[in-house]
Amino acid sequence: MAPVAFFAASILAIAGAIGVVSLANPFYNVLALVVHLISLAALFLLLRAEFVAAAQIVVYAGAVMVLYVFVVAYVGGQDEPLGGATGGASKGLAYLFAGALLVEICIAVLGSGLKMLHTEGAGYAPGTHAFGTPAYIGELLLTKFLFPFEAASILLLVAAVAAVVLARRRGGVSVGDEQIPFLTALRAPGTGTMAEAASGRLPAAALEEPVALERETAETGGGW
Amino acid sequence: MDIRWYLVVSAFVFSIGATGVLTRRNPLVILLCLELMLNAANLALIAFARMWGNGDGQIFAIIVMVVAACEVTVGLGLIVAMYRRRIPIDVDEARELHG
Predict the structure, then answer these.
(1) The complex's ipTM?
(2) B69, A63: Cβ pair inside 8 Å?
(3) Strands A178-180 and A173-175
(4) Which of A64, A182, A20 shows the shortest CA–CA distance to B76?
(5) N or C: more exposed end of chain A, with fewer CB within 10 A?
(6) How far apart are the C-alpha atoms of B57 and A50, rounded to whole Å?
(7) A224 pLDDT band (50/70/90 cuts)?
(8) pLDDT of amino acid B62
(9) What is the residue-wise DSSP string for A12-79?
(10) Minimum distance, in Å, between the CA of residue A198 and any CA atom of chain B
(11) Does B87 have pLDDT greater than 70?
(12) Chain B touched by A193 (CB under 8 Å)
């Protein structure tokens, strides 16, 4: 039973990977990657990594792929000619390099002196605390690997802030015939912040008539 | 099944992902191919964890998934910013770092 499941899952995984690389439409690439990820989760299950398989399905095939689908739908799936402007010579070189990489990794893996590679792995005893169950992983994460766990949370926070900063709307707001930066438009004029002092634009007109700037900002939609 | 088989599948997926990174020009597809390579590494990590009967490799795979999620967020944010600024979504066009 295990060999059948292994070959089915690995053939699907490799087919999905080839689909990601070779299909022309980015939307189909994303769908091929979903197939690949789900069959990889089946391989993880065969390797007794139950928690990682579940996380793979929920986080990868669920959340991350939804993000991809949204961006493909937003940017628009531009079909790209596979022949492309890049010359055939450099493309052939790329295939040659990838083939060399494959041969090299296979030599490294199959020619290694690790005796355990020829077995099905270490012994496995089923149970509630067995290898790869959520209880096992959770205990490791909160004891032995507490620091990487916390570092990962900070990394996620930084990435979320970076994504918002990168993808936000730029270009500022136009007040009259003057273009002012977006952050300045958010602030009430004449509040004397350090940003105003540093940029040297403390609008004299705004000081005389602070309401006008706010009203015009509201009319232009405030940049949101 | 021997652990070797899983490692060979991992090698295949990694090389296919490397081919995609080298040949495709759409940054979205390049990000997808990077995901392929990261997943191949995950498969190898989990196969080795099974080989030793030790959970450290699985924790490593989970951390790799976290880093991949972060990389995707920032990469997709960059692509959206490129689209907003009317820069063509093509890595050949965006090969200069300035403006």
Answers:
(1) 0.92
(2) yes
(3) antiparallel
(4) A64
(5) N
(6) 13
(7) very low
(8) 94
(9) HHHHHHHHHHH-SSHHHHHHHHHHHHHHHHHHHHHTT-HHHHHHIIIIIIIIIHHHHHHHHHHH----
(10) 24
(11) yes
(12) no
Residues 37-56, chain B: which have Cβ within 8 Å of A?
39, 42-43, 46-47, 49-56
Of B11, B22, B47, the CB nearest to A94: B22
What does the block give as tokens for A73? 């739908």
More confident residue, A90 or A214: A90
Interchain CB contact of A99 with B (< 8 Å):
yes
Confidence of residue B71 (pLDDT cuts 50, 70, 90): very high
Return d(Cα A56, Cα B20) in angstroms, integer.
22
Calculate the dihedral angle through the C-alpha atoms of A32, A10, B13, B68, rounding to the nearest 10 degrees: 70
Query: Can you tell me whether residue A196 is helix, strand or coil?
Result: helix
Nearest residue of B to residue A115, measured between CA atoms: B51
Q: Which pLDDT does position A190 carry in this prediction?
A: 61
CA–CA gap between residue B99 and residue B88 (Å, rounded): 13
From CA A197, how far away is CA A208, in angstroms rounded? Answer: 17
Query: So what's the pLDDT on residue A223?
Result: 46
* CB within 8 Å: B58 and A51: yes
Q: Using pLDDT thresholds of 50, 70 and 90, give the confidence band for residue B36.
A: very high
Question: CA A69, A72, A73 angle in degrees (round to 5)?
Answer: 85
